[in-house]
User: Fold UspA domain-containing protein from Triticum turgidum subsp. durum.
Amino acid sequence: MEESTEAAATASGVAPGAGGAEAARAPGLMKVVVVLHAQHRVDRSAAEAGLAYAPPTALDSMRRAQEENSRRAVARALDVCRQKQASATAAVVEGDPKEAICEAVEEMRADLLVLGSRGLGMVKRALLGSVSDYLAHHACCPVLIVKPPNKAHHK
Assistant:
């Protein structure tokens, strides 16, 4: 990871996930769900948007928006965990999501990685790459991929 899990989590105002994973391994304690959110580095995102040069104020604005989006995503996931009475902590990592998640899972010594699939079609998946496919083949623990709900099935 380009930043450690704790540094990225602290910078985004989210509790680091590594402590939760270590606490879950202590004798007599139940397992803890670690909500992990991966985000691209802002300077890389600007380059991908076709900006040859982005003024520092624009990068700061992008960084603040990205941190707010991360906080909202993590908060929604933690709310679901609370509703289900699951003990949970959270972390935000920065970098290429495939590599950042893979490294975080290894650092946390996770027992299971559960992640969602965006439900991309075959062509989009081939062009954009699939984080879930990459992690299914490279993560150091078992991986459970949750498909998006089928809209026709839920009518």
Q: What stands out?
A: Residues 112-155 form one domain.
